[in-house]
């Protein structure tokens, strides 16, 4: 699964290399609008006549891609690193299947690590109910609640939450690396 995703990640990184240099941030409105110069992108890569890429760039999925990945200050991920820093490696691996496979496996391993940051924590599956368990009557009495203890726990929780710093997401935003300019990529 991860290797197939790594292949597509690499494909789209190759397809969209240099897209950041064709983005323009327009700050006319209260919320900035990001515009992608399709003609400049296709022209600089020498792909003006490429019908497939033109259709990809005109699609709704690409418009969503630009709006999500266009802002210059956001959380970066493996795709951003691939587009910005692995350009030369991808070009050097063209025509060398063992190197491509090695790179795909490295990307797949990174995808796995990103999704499973703590591999040593294993989740136990819930066992299936035994045969005929639905026929048995399991009515346990609900325990009585001590109202005083509930109030104490609520007060303790409120006191702790007032002194604690606000919760934040673990993702840290940074300036997205632009990578090399589009003119560097004359497609084969």
TrEMBL record:
GO CC terms: cytoplasmic vesicle
Domain of life: Eukaryota
Record InterPro entries: dDENN_dom, DENN_Domain_GEFs, Tripartite_DENN
Domain UDENN: 1-76
One Gene Ontology molecular-function label: guanyl-nucleotide exchange factor activity
BP terms from Gene Ontology: regulation of Rab protein signal transduction
Protein name listed in UniProt: MTMRD protein
Organism, scientific name: Pardalotus punctatus
């Amino acid at each position: 699964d991860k290797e197939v995703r790594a292949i597509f990640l690499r494909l789209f990184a190759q397809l969209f290399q240099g897209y950041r240099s064709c983005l323009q941030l327009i700050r006319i409105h209260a919320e900035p609008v990001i515009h992608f110069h399709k003609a400049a992108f296709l022209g600089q890569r020498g792909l003006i006549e490429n019908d497939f890429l033109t259709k990809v760039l005109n699609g709704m999925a690409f418009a969503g891609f630009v709006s999500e990945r266009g802002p210059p200050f956001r959380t970066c991920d493996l795709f951003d690193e691939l587009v910005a820093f692995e350009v030369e490696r991808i070009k050097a691996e063209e025509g060398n299947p063992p190197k491509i496979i090695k790179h795909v496996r490295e990307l797949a391993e990174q995808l796995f690590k990103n999704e499973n940051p703590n591999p040593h924590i294993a989740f136990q599956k819930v066992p299936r109910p035994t045969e005929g368990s639905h026929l048995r009557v399991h009515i346990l009495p609900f325990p009585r609640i001590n109202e005083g203890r509930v109030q104490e726990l609520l007060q303790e929780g409120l006191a702790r939450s007032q002194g604690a710093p606000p919760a934040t997401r673990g993702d840290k935003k940074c300036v997205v690396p632009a990578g090399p300019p589009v003119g560097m990529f004359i497609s084969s």
